[in-house]
């Protein structure tokens, strides 16, 4: 530092200063001593007291010299000057005293000022330190406030803001605070704060997962209800348009024509699912570069939740709730997959889906293992179909569920067969075999809507006046009603099933055939064996006829109702079974008639070796013909062809009985008169058949007349010629002819007259000749 330049006081400056205080101003009557203060302060500040005194002394000396010079020139002036000088001196002395006093005072004041200055400097230094400390503390407080707000943001769920705040702290510009231990400690605590944010957002997501699990059932319920509304709307439209009959909900046609109504199952008036916790968690984990960890944790949590959906064992009553929860579960998964980018992979969701579907099928199968009610299977199918239709997409494969439904369907069909087979058995056995009696138009409409009959018969029944007795009995009506119920229940199960349609149609055909053949036809056949009432047998015949027609109409109905779009007409094998049943029924009628005819034949009293011919038929034939015509015409209310067949059967049976008389083993011998009497009976019967308008029944006696004609016309030798046997005597059976000849020969052997014995020997030889035609064949 350069030395301070010392101040030099000149005479002019001293004069000027003295002039200021009026010490040199003769015109002034007062001394302006106050002006000494600044002068003395200036001298004191400059530490020039000695220099100033020397200057003043020099001034005094110069003034004294000036005074002496002046005095020498003018004594009076000198005296006056001396006097003035003394005055000045006195003033000067006083001024010295004042200056000394002021100097001491200034020195004292200066020391105080120095102390105060030093204290002030120290205070300023302290203040500067305090300011710096305050600035640092304020910076710390700002950082701590940020850290505090991070905690508040975590509690408020503002995780991203909290994470950004931590990044702001880490990226603060370099200041004096950056070098402090506090700041370094703060930076070291940032990872733990990030962990807190991570834990908090994870806890938030876990809580969200819990709420999602609680709401999954409601989500699924709303989705299933929406799908049910959509299904009903499509079914109504499909019923109006035959071209859409083969299309189901979810098919390409339905998707094209579906008038979609905006309904978001995740956000509606009843429910709103907020995915913010999940999105926030994904965002935070992505920022923390820990997304893989979140993905594994989320997959594990959802896997656990999917495992908890299905109770084991599964009560069938809770299946609907379970399918609702599963639907809600995978609706959420679909939304997450579609809205979170690469957070979820399709394969992860597919694994969850496959696991749930596998456990669901096992649980349902286990629950139905001992179930015998077909309606339970139908309810299960309805739950599964609604569930499948709701979730069916390219992501969720429902092939295994459809296959499982087909398995359930096979069991359902078996139970349905069992239920309806018992009902059909009961219907047939409990029927009174009487025509249905209709009194009102409503009853008639109800019946006609159920039964399958030809259009011509339907028109006749509709036009007939009421009340009326229908041709069929309760068996036909109730069986048709149950067949319709069976078909309805059958197709109710496959409604919505998109696979194996042809198999289902084939299974329906097979089931219906089984029911028609084994239960209806079988029961009718069994009842035939126990029925002897001709009117009931006639009703069974009529029912069988209508069942034949019903099979044809049923085939047409099934073809129209079939679920498959390809293939030919559905054929039922039961039609041929009803043909056989009809044949058995007519045969049973014949058998019952023949049984009654046996009673009449038991009353017959033939003399097989009469001495003469009778003039008229045997008396029992009158009663036989009367009974036959009365019963067949009045009790057999069946088609004329079957009535005629019954008559023909009776005629053939009578002819067979007559032939048994002639050729059977029960009668050892007879003569020509007995044969003639039997021919008289045949004439009587042929006459009666002609009387009732059935002359063709006489053909039943062709064999009898041809056989006896050979005997009476002595044409045995002609019969032995092969050409004649095949043309003229085709109706004659050689064994019966041989038996008749043997009986005549036996009678001849008992005669005493020669002619008789010779005739008997002739018959024996003829019998032997006829027997030799077919050696090895006995009677």
Structural summary, described in words:
- With 779 residues, the chain is mostly helical.
- Helix content is 74%, strand content 1%.
- It has helices spanning 11-20, 36-45, 49-73, 75-156, 159-170, 181-240, 252-257, 276-287, 291-309, 319-339, 346-367, 374-391, 399-430, 441-450, 455-463, 474-494, 501-530, 534-561, 574-603, 620-635, 640-663, 672-691, 702-712, 716-720, 722-727, 734-749, 754-773, and strands spanning 435-438, 468-473.
- A two-stranded antiparallel sheet has the order 1-2.
- The chain is rod-shaped and about 250 Å long.
- The model has no long low-confidence stretch (mean pLDDT 80).
- Belongs to the SEC15 family.
- This is Exocyst complex component SEC15.
- Residues 56-223 form the Exocyst complex component EXOC6/Sec15 N-terminal domain.
- Residues 752-779 are annotated as: Disordered.
- Residues 752-769 have a biased composition (Basic and acidic residues).
Outline of this structure?
By secondary structure, the protein is an all-alpha fold. The protein contains 27 helices and 2 strands. The chain has a two-stranded antiparallel ribbon.
Query: What would you call the structural class?
Result: mainly alpha
What is the string of SSEs from the N terminus onward? HHHHHHHHHHHHHEHHEHHHHHHHHHHHH
Radius of gyration: 68 Å
Form type: rod-shaped
Cα(first) to Cα(last) distance is 172 Å
How many H/I helical runs? 27
User: Into which percentage range does the β-strand content fall?
Assistant: under 5%
List how many beta strands DSSP finds. Answer: 2
Helix fraction? Answer: over 70%
Round the mean pLDDT to the nearest integer and report it. 80
Q: Could you name the ranges where pLDDT drops below 50 across 5 or more consecutive residues?
A: none
For the sheet with most strands, the description reads: 2 strands, antiparallel
- Which oligomeric form is depicted? single chain
Strand order of the largest sheet: 1-2
Domain Exocyst complex component EXOC6/Sec15 N-terminal: 56-223
InterPro entries: EXOC6/Sec15, EXOC6/Sec15_C, EXOC6/Sec15_C_dom1, EXOC6_Sec15_N, EXOC6PINT-1/Sec15/Tip20_C_dom2
Pfam family, one: Sec15_C
Function: Component of the exocyst complex involved in the docking of exocytic vesicles with fusion sites on the plasma membrane.
């Amino acid at each position: 530092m350069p030395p301070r330049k010392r101040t030099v006081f000149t005479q002019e400056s001293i004069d000027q200063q003295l002039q200021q205080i009026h010490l040199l101003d003769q015109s002034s009557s007062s001394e302006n001593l106050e002006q000494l203060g600044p002068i003395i302060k200036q001298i004191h500040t400059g530490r020039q007291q000695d220099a100033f005194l020397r200057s003043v002394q020099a001034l005094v000396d110069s003034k004294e010299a000036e005074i002496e010079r002046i005095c020498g020139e003018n004594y009076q002036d000198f005296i006056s000057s001396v006097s003035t000088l003394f005055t000045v001196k006195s003033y000067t002395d006083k001024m010295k005293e004042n200056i000394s006093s002021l100097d001491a005072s200034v020195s004292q004041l200066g020391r105080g000022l120095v102390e105060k200055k030093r204290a002030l400097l120290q205070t300023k230094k302290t203040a500067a330190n305090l300011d710096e400390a305050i600035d640092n503390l304020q910076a710390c407080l700002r950082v701590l406030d940020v850290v505090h707000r991070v905690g508040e943001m975590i509690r408020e769920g503002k995780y991203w803001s909290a994470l950004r705040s931590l990044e702001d702290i880490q990226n603060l510009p370099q200041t004096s605070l950056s070098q402090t231990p506090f700041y370094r400690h703060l930076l070291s605590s940032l990872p733990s704060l990030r962990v807190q944010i991570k834990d908090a957002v994870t806890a938030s997501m876990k809580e969200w997962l819990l709420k999602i699990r609680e709401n999954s059932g409601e989500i699924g319920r709303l989705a299933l209800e929406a799908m049910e509304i959509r299904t009903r709307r499509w079914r109504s439209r499909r019923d109006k348009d035959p071209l859409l009959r083969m299309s189901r909900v979810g098919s390409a046609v339905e998707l094209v024509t579906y008038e979609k109504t905006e309904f978001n199952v995740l956000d509606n008036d009843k429910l709103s699912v907020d995915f913010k916790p999940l999105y926030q968690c994904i965002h935070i984990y992505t920022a923390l570069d820990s997304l893989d960890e979140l993905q594994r944790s989320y997959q594990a949590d959802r896997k656990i939740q999917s495992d908890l959906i299905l109770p084991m064992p599964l009560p069938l009553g809770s299946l609907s709730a379970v399918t609702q929860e599963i639907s809600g579960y995978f609706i959420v998964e679909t939304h997450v997959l579609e809205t979170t980018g690469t957070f979820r992979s399709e394969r992860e969701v597919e694994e969850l889906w496959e696991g749930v579907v596998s456990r669901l099928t096992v649980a349902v199968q286990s629950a139905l293992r001992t179930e015998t009610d077909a309606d339970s299977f139908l309810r299960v199918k309805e739950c599964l179909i609604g569930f499948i239709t709701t979730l069916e997409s390219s992501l969720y494969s429902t092939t295994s569920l459809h296959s499982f439904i087909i398995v359930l369907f096979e069991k359902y069909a078996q139970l349905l067969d069992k239920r309806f087979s018992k009902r059909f058995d009961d219907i047939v056995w409990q029927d009174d075999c009487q025509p249905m009696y209709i009194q009102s138009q409503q009853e008639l409409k109800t019946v006609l809507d159920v039964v399958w009959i030809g259009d011509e018969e339907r028109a006749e029944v509709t036009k007939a006046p009421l009340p009326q007795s229908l041709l069929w009995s309760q068996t036909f009506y109730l069986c048709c009603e149950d067949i319709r119920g069976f078909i309805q229940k059958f197709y109710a199960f496959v409604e919505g099933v998109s696979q194996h349609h042809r198999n289902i149609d084939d299974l329906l055909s097979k089931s219906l055939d089984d029911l028609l053949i084994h239960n209806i036809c079988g029961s009718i056949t069994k009842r035939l064996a126990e029925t002897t009432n001709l009117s009931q047998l006639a009703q069974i015949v009529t029912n069988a006829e209508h069942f034949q027609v019903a099979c044809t109409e049923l085939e047409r109905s099934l073809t129209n109702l079939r679920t498959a779009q390809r293939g030919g007409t559905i054929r039922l094998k039961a039609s041929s079974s009803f043909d056989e049943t009809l044949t058995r029924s007519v045969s049973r009628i014949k058998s019952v008639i023949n049984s009654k005819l046996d009673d009449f034949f038991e009353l017959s009293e033939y003399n097989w070796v009469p001495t003469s011919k009778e003039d008229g038929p045997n008396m029992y034939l009158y009663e036989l013909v009367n009974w036959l015509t009365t019963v067949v015409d009045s009790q057999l209310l069946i088609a004329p062809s079957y009535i005629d067949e019954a008559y023909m059967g009776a005629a053939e049976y009578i002819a067979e009985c007559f032939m048994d008389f002639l050729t059977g083993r029960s009668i050892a011998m007879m003569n020509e008169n007995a044969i003639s009497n039997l021919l008289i009976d045949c004439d009587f019967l042929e006459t009666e058949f002609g009387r009732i308008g059935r002359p063709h029944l006489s053909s039943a006696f062709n064999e009898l007349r041809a056989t006896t004609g050979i005997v009476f016309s002595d044409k045995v030798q002609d019969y032995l010629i092969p050409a004649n046997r095949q043309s003229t005597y085709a109706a004659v059976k050689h064994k019966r002819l041989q038996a008749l000849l043997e009986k005549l020969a036996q009678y001849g052997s008992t005669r005493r007259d020669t002619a008789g014995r010779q005739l008997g020997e002739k018959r024996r030889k003829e019998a032997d000749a006829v027997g030799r035609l077919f050696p090895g064949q006995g009677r």
